[in-house]
Amino acid sequence: MASRSQPLRGKMTCKKIFWAVLPHACFILSLVIYAFLGALMFSHIEGNQDATSNEEYRRFLQNLTDLSRKLSDNVTENEKMFKNDIRELFNTADPVWFVIPEERWSFFGSLFFCCTVFTTVGYGNTYPVTRIGKYLCMLYALFGIPLMFLVLTDMGDILATVLSKSYNEFRKLQSKILASKLCSGSTCSKRNELKSRAQSKIVINEPLTIMEVLRNQSGMKRRPVKYRNVELFEMLIARENENTKPVRNKSMERWSSCPELAREKTVSRVIENFDKIGKELEKLDVPIVLMVLVIFVYISCAAAILPKWESNMDFQEAFYFCFITLTTIGFGDTQLEHPKFFLFFSLYIIIGMEIVFIAFKLGQDRLIVLYKKVISFCAEKKMPSKKIYPK
Questions:
Q1: pLDDT digits (tens, 9 = 90+) for 305-319
Q2: Whole-number mean pLDDT of the chain?
Q3: Quick one: pLDDT at residue 254?
Q4: Up-side HSE of residue 55: CA atoms within 13 Å toward CB?
Q5: Domain boundary among 62, 79, 98
Q6: Phi, psi (5° rounding) for residue 203?
């Protein structure tokens, strides 16, 4: 029987873990599928467009040809004028004309564009050109941004739980170390003796049986009783029957006799997991300095790795790029030469955005507390002092 019960317990624990992980896996999987579908859509629409077939591009080439013909042999005299004319001409140029659509809007390039859309980073170096692509981009962002925020909130709960537990364990360890330093040998021994004496005095009362309850109530029969306590006796009888019966696996009885009950219970647990999204972030209470330190270390690790992929970046430039990305500012002044490699860094971006989101949430809570203190202080100053008049 023991050998059978162990595999059953293992299966039940696996099922519990599965139903607990299911909401988080659904959110992440739906975001991944959404990104892949968007990459296929934009690579098909924007990758087949020809931006160099319009009239503006032909006019640009004609003006460039006229400027080159006007340049005389004596370059020193017309050099300044030529520079001004060529600068004005290139200001009117569209950057799309100098890009090959098949290369920029490949599957990986489109996937990188989708990640910048629903993360609200938007570097600006890749954007849709066709009219249908712009409309689909708005529709894609309309559903993708809430999904991304939902994933951030859900994963933020996990990170908040890890951070709060780690911080609490660190505080407990710190208090134990301080207590061990402050506590001398004699005082500690006295405290332990007092604790052992107090624990020895504790008496655990077992629950009363039916006979004991009847004996106690037999002496109280003389008192007038308005209501008969039938429910109490029914509960006691049921408890006596449970104690006399052999121990059975209730979960197996539920699955075998009425599986609908177990299904409803598991479904309700999954629904409760969905309802608890965002609750851990509300309960998180760690110092804001600790979160700033975590963000600094997190960005520094990426800034040390990224220059190995991008040759045009050093540590400072990579640190600036990661900060602009994780805060979803996305100026676009620093561009990537190999966005394919940075796509493998997408998990880093999502986790980093969650850490920054938690830091912003903590900063927001601190600001609210500060505003409350300021308002209460100003209100106390403006309140007129109560004057006591003699009767």
A1: 888 888 888 999 999
A2: 75
A3: 44
A4: 0
A5: 98
A6: -115, 130
- The C-alpha torsion from 355 through 360 and 362 to 367, rounded to 10°, is 170
Q: Are 329 and 353 in contact (CB under 8 A)?
A: no
End-to-end CA distance of the chain: 88
Between the alpha carbon of residue 380 and those of residues 123, 274, 368, 374, 388, the distances in Å are 49, 43, 18, 10, 18
CB–CB of 171/165 below 8 Å?
A: no
What DSSP string describes 46-61?
HTT--GGGSHHHHHHH
Measure the CA–CA gap between 88 and 82, rounded to whole angstroms: 10
| 302 in a structural domain | yes
- What torsion do the CA atoms of 29, 32, 38, 42 make, to the nearest 10 degrees? -160
φ, ψ of residue 31 in degrees (nearest 5):
-70, -40
Contact (Cβ atoms closer than 8 angstroms) between residue 240 and residue 210:
yes
Q: How far apart are CA 331 and CA 125, in angstroms?
A: 10
d(C-alpha 315, C-alpha 308), whole Å: 10
- With a CB cutoff of 8 Å and minimum separation 6, the contacts of 36 are 111
Supply 221's token pair.
């029969």
Q: What is the pLDDT of residues 252-295, one digit of tens each?
A: 444 444 554 455 555 566 566 666 676 777 777 788 888 899 99
**Residue 75 shares a structural domain with residue 125:** no
182 within some domain: no
Rounded CA-CA distance 141/127 in Å is 13
Instruction: Report the range of poorest mean pLDDT among 92-106, 136-150, 165-179, 184-198.
Output: 184-198
Assigned domain for 245 exists: no
Closest CA relative to residue 274, chosen from 19, 10, 1, 14:
19
pLDDT at res. 183: 66
Predicted structure pTM score: 0.67
Domain assignment present for 18: no
Confidence (pLDDT) at 169? 87
Domain with 355, as residue range(s), is: 102-176+264-381
Query: Given the structure tokens 């106690």, which residue do they identify?
Result: 216
Q: What is the pLDDT of residues 332-372, one digit of tens each?
A: 888 777 766 766 777 788 889 989 988 888 888 888 888 88
